[in-house]
Design brief:
heterodimer; A: about 775 residues; alpha+beta; 4 domains; ten-stranded mixed β-sheet; six-stranded mixed beta barrel; about 15% strand; elongated; B: about 240 residues; alpha/beta; Rossmann fold; six-stranded mixed β-sheet; 7 helices; 10 strands
Amino acid sequence: MSRSLVSWFGPVRTATGGLLRHKVQAIVIGMVLLVSTASATLGLALLASGNAPFQHAFAAQNGADLAVTVNPAHATAAQLDATRALHGITAAAGPFAEATVQTQQGGQPFGQLTLAGRASPGGRVDDAVLTDGHWPDAPGQVVLDNASGNGGLNVGNTLTITGRPGARSLTVVGFANSVTDTADGWVVPAEIGDLQAPGTPPSAQLLYRFASAGSAAQVRADLAEVTGALPPGTVTGSYPWQSAESQTTSNGAIMEPFVVAFALIGLAMAVLIVANVVSGAVVAGYHRIGVLKSIGLTPAQVVVAYLSRVGLPALAGCVAGVVAGNVLAIPVLRQSAEAYGVGQQLVPLWASVLAPAGLLALTMLAAFGPALRAGRLSATQAIAAGRAPATGRGYAVHRLMARLRLPRPVGLGLAAPFARPARTAVSLAAIAFGATAVIFAFGLHSSLGRAAAAQTLSATVPVEIQADGPGTGAGPGQFPDAGQDAAVTAALRAQPGTAQQTTVYQNGVKVPGLPGSVNAWAFGGGSSWLGYGVIAGHWSDAPGQVDVNTAFLTASGLSVGDTATVDTGTAQVTVHIAGEVFYPDSTPTVFGSTRTLPGLATTANLSQWDVNLRPGTSTDGYVQAVNNALGGRSPWAATTHKDGGKFYSIAVGLIGTLSLMVGIAAGLGVLNTVLMTTRDRVHDLGVFKALGMRPGQVLTMVVCWIAVPAVIAGAIAAPAAVALNSATVRAMAGTAHTGVPASFTQVFPPSRLALLALAALVIAAAGALAPASWAARARPVVALRTE
Amino acid sequence: MSDQSTPGEVIRVDGVTKAYQSDALPALADVSMGVAAGEVVAVMGPSGSGKSTLLNLIAGLDRPTAGTVTVAGRRIDTLGESALARFRARHVGIIFQFFNLLDDLTVEDNVLLPAQLAGASRRQARARAGELLEQMGIASFRDSYPARMSGGQRQRVAIARALVNSPEVLLADEPTGALDTATGQEIGRLLRSLAAGGQTLVLVTHDPEMAARYAARVVHIVDGRLAGAGVGALR
C-alpha cells in the first residue's frame, strides 16, 4: 500500500474507532445479517429443491420412462433382449425377475410387496439410490424402497413371507429410493424363484428409456412398440413415468407458496432492520464524525468510515449466516429428498453465493445513503445532528401521560416512542412482520393439520381393512372371493368396538366430455361419517347424488348442482353433483354410493373397508381382534390408518424453523431500536436515577418504550396473518389441483387470534429486555457523565 | 445499618477513598468530614480536585473504593442499587450545574417527578410542587417547557425539583456555574434563604467569593485530599 493511501486511510480508521468501540451494535448488525442470510439461504435452497424435484431426481437416477411387466414364459430370453434394439429406445435394463409376496413383521401383517431380483442398485436405467445399509449380497436379504414407507422397520428387522409353503424370512439390510417406483424391494436374483407362490406365473420387469417419452401419448406409442415386438400375452402390465411423477410432485409443489411467503417476510424484515441498524449507527456516530471533520476529515473519508464500520460486522454476519443456512438446510433437505425419492439434496452453490452477496449489497446500499448524508454535513451540523429528538416531538403525549393515573415510569415509557416517530415506525413494522410470521405459522400448522386429517381421513377412519395394502393375501391377478369378503363384514359386525363400517369400491369410469378414465369411489353403506372435507355443496345424501373433486369440476367445466353422465362399464347413469370435496389429486374423481354408481360393487373392485370405532376402543386391540377373527389365511387384514405422511412432517418442521428465524430477526430489530433509544437517552436515564428512579422502575420504563408499537403491531399482524394464511392455503391447494373447504382457513377463532396477537408483545419484550436491563444496571454517575 | 455519624451530624464521611482506575492516583484519598444538620458547607478546590466526586459519594450516585458514607443516619455505601435509589428519592436533593431538567416534561412535571418516583400521594405532591414554584417565583411557568426558559429560571426549577420531597440534605454542584453573574447571585440568595430555613446544604464551587458569602464552613480539597477548612459568612 502506498504511503499516500495509508495516510488517507489512517483518519478513516481513527474515525471508525475500531469495531470494539461499538461492539454491541456490531453484534446486532452481525446477528441480524446472520439470521437474514441463513433464512435467505434456506429459502433459496428450498425453492431450488422444490423446483421440479421429480425431474431432477429422474435425471439423476436415470429413471425408467416405462417399466414393462412381462411373463417370461411367453418369450425367449433372446426375444426379450431384442427389445433393447428397438427404434427410439436409448437405454434398457432387465429383465429382472420379480415376485409378489405377502409379508408379516413381528406377527402382524406387513403387506404385499413386489420384490425384484437385482444384483446391484446401479444401472443405465433406474439407478436406485441406497440411503441406508447395503445392497443384498446373499439370499435371505432384502432392501426396501423408501417410497413405500419404512413401516417402522429398521435395518436388521426381519420380514416373514406368508402365503407359500414352508417358512421363509428376509432380513432388511438396507433402504433405497427408486424414482420410478419399479419395486417395493430388491433381493438377489437367485432368490426370486424361491419367493414365488406355487402356481403363480413367472414375472419379470423390463425398464426402458426412450428418445421420446415426454407425453402420455408418446409413452403409449413406446409401449405399443415393445408389446408388438414380443409374442402375444408376454406383456402383462406397464408403469409409465407419469404415474410415478403424480405420486411425488404434488406434495413438493404444495410447499412452495408458504416457503415463498416466509422468504418475502424475511426479506422485508432484513431490509427494515438493516436500514434501521445502519441509520442508527450513522446517527450515533455523527458527533464523532463532526469532531473529526472539524480537524480535517474529508467527506469521502467520512463515507468510507461509515461503510467500513457497518460492512465488517455485516460481512461476518453474512458468512456466518450462509454457514448456518447450510446447516439448517441439511435435515430439511434430507426429509425433502426422501419424500421426492432423491438420494441427496444439497444447498446449491448459487444459493450459498447469492444469499450473502445480496444481503451484503443490500446492507451497503442501506448504509450508503446515511453515510453520504454524513459526508455532506458541515462539521458543526454533524456535531449537532442526532444528539436529541427534535424539540417538541412527543411533548403532548408526555403531558397526557403525566395526567393519567399510571405509575410514572409506565407513563414516561409509553410516551417515549413519540419522540422518534420514524424509528418507532420501523420498530413497529419489524414487530408486525415478526408477529405476522408467528401467527401465520400457527395458522398454517392448524390448516395443514385439517388438510391432513381430511385427506387421509385419519381422524374419522382409524382402521382400514385392505387387500392391496398391508395385510392382504391375494396374489397378482387374483382377487379375494365373495366368501372371504363376507367373512370380513361378519368379523366387523361381530366386533363390539365397531361404530360404523362401509365397504369401499374403486374403479375407473367414463364421463362423456372428460378425456381418459375418471377415478370412481363407491361406498357400500352409509358414508357421511367418513369425513371428506366439503368445499361446496354437501355430501351426497340420496341416491343419484355424487360428490366430485376439484379436478373433476375443472376438467369438465361443470359446477355443483349440475348433472353428469357416468358410464360404469355396466350401466350409464345420470348423476347430480351434490358437492365438491377436498381430494387433492389431478385425476378427476367421483364419489357416490354403490346404488348411485351401479356395477362398481364387484369383488374385483372391492378396495377396502373403512371402519370407525366406538369411543374408548383401543385401535391396536381392535386391529388385533379383527385379524385374529379373519385368521392368517384371509386375503384381508385390518390395519391402523396412516397419518399425514412425510409431506406434513416436512411442512410442519419447515414452518417452525422459518417462523422461529423471522421471530428472532424481529426481536433483534427491537433490541437494536431500544438500544439506540437507550443511548440517545442515556443522560436522561442518569437524571432519572439521580432523582430516585429504582432499577426496577427503569426496566419497566424502557420495556414500556416498545409497548405502544407492540400493541399496534399486534393489531396489524393479526388480520394480516389471517389474510396471508388464507391466501397461502389456497395457493397451496391450487398447486395440488384442489380447492379447500372454508374450515381449513377458518383456524383463528377470536380468542385464539387475540392470544396469538400477544406474540407482538412477546417479541417486543424479548428484544427490549436486554437493553432495558443494561439501562437498569447502569450507574447513575456514569450515565450523567455521558453527554 | 448502624448510625456511624456523631450526634447532630447529618452527613458523615470517614476515610473515604475513590479510585476510578487501580493504577492511577485516586480521585479522593482518605477523606473524612462531617456536616451538621442545618449547616451550609462549601467544598472548594480547583478543577479535577475531587470535589464533585465527594458530592457524588454523598448523594449515593457513586460508591467509595474504601471508607464509609453515612447520610441522614444511614450508611449508604453498602446499600444496593434499589435501596440507594429509594434513599436518594426521599433524603437527598441534587442541584446540577447544567440543571439536568427533562426537556419533554413541563416545569410542573419536572418538579413532580421525584415525588412520583418516591410514591408520594398525587394531591400532596402537586400541592408541594405548587408551593415550591411559588417560592421560587416561577409559578407562571408551571406549564412551560424548560427549553423555553432562561438559565436562571431553569435552575430555579431544578431547585424546586430537588426540594419536592423535603430532603434532609441538599447537594448543589456548581449551581451558578452555567449562569451569568447577576443570575448566579439570585440563585445564591435563594440558597441562602433555604439555609436560613434550616436546610442542610453542601455546595460545591470553585468560586471563593460564593463560598465565603453563602457557606458557614468552607472545606478545601486539593488532589483528592482535604487541604484545610475555613469559615464562611453564614457562621
